[in-house]
Write a structure and sequence with these properties.
With 542 residues, the protein is α/β, with parallel strands linked by helices. It is 49% helix and 11% strand. It contains 23 helices and 14 strands. The strands form four sheets. Strands 4-10-9-8-7-5-6 form a seven-stranded mixed sheet, sandwiched between helices. A three-stranded antiparallel sheet has the order 11-14-13. The longest helix has 24 residues. It is globular and about 85 Å long.
Length: 542
């Protein structure tokens, strides 16, 4: 008991002072200590790693690896040492491989993926199959370094289909394959600084609640940005959070001193997409009041919302779109993500408008890439900056990773009935319903809700169910960390506090992706029991 009390005091002292993800690790230690004294299973609903995997495109990937090795031996076979795949006639040899190995897992999907590239995207058969084969072997540096040619075209089709990137509205866009959205964040922040598009101390805006690194990075000594928070403060007629920003909050973006807007859409943790009305308001503000606003939109959860449309679709000139395959395909370990930018964009415009003395300095940075460094577009500067420019010739995502990215993308594009999409959406929706049912809550229909996470505001629950007096009692006598501590100690359940995401202080974040269905009933039941315990204590004090 003394050990538990010491841990509780430690948790109270550090709550709100460290990242909620680091705090979660402390809760896991507590939950494990408590778990050792019971037969309970530790339930960690604090992490967004899904517990499903897209198996079919993986089967196609690994089966294709067998073909690639046969091609390597076809080129040069010296036992353990074999050669680089040859292009001439490779498609015919691929068709022979398909015919001879009809029972291999994923073989039909593999054929459909290759057929899609040839028939739908008009790829030259030998060129396409050779690019995939050489890439999965991984025997060459990525070239082009930004992304392999055929693979980029497939990924662009995927982003157009899922993120609604709009060629008619924004013109052509280019894609940089990166090691997940995490790498995308780091690369973009660094290149904005390297190109003097943002300077230390500049004013930026962040839409909140938001994934915590977006809150933490701007305050690092390298950046020290002045941050304006655009809060999702809107509530509905039942005084429930809609997780949308009011017009008053969005109007902060009219301030021309705000140089950049960072947004996760759908949000994390509420996982609610920006509404059409809010998008229209943002478009109006940018077009009429802050035309040079740079927007960085992280759209990783977009595939979980029917008809999702990225801000890059509505404001293609102003927006860099980032995306990660991690959540949708259960592929966090692969590190697969994209940075996308239209060729006609505000970033290149602002670089050209920099004072000559600054342009001269940045020109020296990229002089070894191009005899006219001013002509290097911003997205290619991001690629170069990712390898400190000097190592640009070895930049780029590993080629086997790019093949897996292409297979995931093509798998989705050939799934005309969206069967995989519906399965992932159904998983998240059902788990949220199980959680809400066990809490005794009604789950409202919200077409913008991805249901990947849910953010539960305990004070609003307290006021709605037991009145303002109980809400005041809870706030005056307890701390948000008490709920998290009790769940970990009493039930071996680990959740995250929403305050660490710049959400309501008394909210908690529950991942709906990483545990099994029945676990959400367990979590809801345990949370309800703890909350009812607080209600009993309040009533006893009346």
């Amino acid at each position: 008991m003394e050990e538990i009390n010491l841990k509780r005091q430690e948790l109270e002292n550090i709550y709100g002072k460290i990242s909620p993800f680091e705090f979660k690790n402390k809760l896991i230690e507590l939950a494990k200590t408590s778990n050792q004294k019971s037969t309970r299973t530790l339930l960690d609903a604090g992490r967004g790693n899904p517990n499903w995997v897209a198996s079919t495109p993986r089967e196609a990937f690994f089966t294709f690896g067998h073909f690639a090795i046969t091609e390597s031996r076809f080129s040069w076979d010296n036992g353990d040492l074999t050669g680089m795949p040859k292009k001439t006639g490779i498609y015919d040899r691929f068709c022979t491989f398909i015919d001879k190995n009809s029972s291999m897992s994923g073989i039909n999907t593999l054929k459909e993926i290759v057929d899609y590239g040839i028939n739908d995207l008009n790829f030259d058969a030998d060129s396409f199959v050779h690019e995939l084969t050489d890439a999965i072997i991984g025997d060459n540096y990525p070239f082009p370094d930004r992304m392999l040619t055929h693979i980029e075209k497939i990924v662009k089709e995927y982003l157009k289909a899922e993120m609604k990137y709009d060629l008619e509205k924004g013109g052509n866009f280019n894609v940089f394959a990166v090691e997940g959205a995490t790498a995308a964040m780091c690369y973009i922040f660094d290149s904005l600084i390297a190109n003097n598009l943002l300077l230390k101390g500049d004013k930026i805006a962040i839409m909140t609640p938001v994934f915590t690194p977006y809150l933490e990075i701007p305050h690092l000594p390298r950046y020290e940005f002045e941050v304006v928070y655009i809060s999702a403060d809107e509530v509905d007629e039942n005084n429930e959070h809609t997780w949308q920003c009011s017009n008053a909050e969005l109007e902060k973006l009219a301030d021309k001193d705000i140089k950049a807007l960072f947004v996760v859409n759908p949000s994390n943790p509420p996982s609610v997409a920006i509404s059409d009305n809010s998008v229209s308001k943002i478009v109006d503000i940018v077009n009429n009041h802050n035309q040079n606003l740079m927007i960085i939109s992280d759209d990783v959860y977009g595939t979980f919302v029917h008809g999702f449309k990225s801000l890059m679709a509505s404001l293609p000139y102003n927006t860099i779109g980032t995306y990660s395959y991690s959540k949708y395909f259960g592929v966090t370990g692969w590190r697969l993500g994209t940075i996308a930018l239209h060729e006609n964009n505000v970033f290149d415009k602002l670089i050209k408008e920099l004072p000559y003395s600054i342009r001269k300095r940045t020109n020296r940075r990229y002089a070894d890439m191009n005899p006219i460094p001013e002509n290097v577009p911003f997205i290619d500067r991001i690629v170069a900056d990712s390898r400190q420019v000097a190592l640009n010739h070895t930049a780029g995502l590993s080629t086997p990773q790019q093949v897996q990215m292409a297979f995931f993308s093509a798998f989705t594009l050939i799934d005309k009935k969206n069967e995989y999409k519906h399965k992932t959406m159904e998983i998240c929706y059902n788990r949220k319903k199980l959680l809400f049912d066990s809490l005794g809550l009604t789950m409202n229909h919200n077409p913008n809700n991805a249901c990947y996470y849910t953010e539960f505001d305990l004070l609003r629950w307290a006021e709605k169910n037991y009145g303002i007096e109980f809400a005041n009692y809870l706030e005056n006598n307890y701390k948000p960390v008490d709920i998290l501590f009790d769940l970990a100690e009493d039930s071996s359940i680990v959740l995250l506090g929403g305050g660490g995401f710049a959400g309501p202080e008394w909210s908690i974040r529950i991942s709906l992706a990483n545990l099994y269905d029945e676990d959400y009933t367990t979590i809801g039941t345990a949370l309800k029991r703890i909350l009812e315990g607080y209600v009993s204590k309040w009533r006893n004090n009346l």
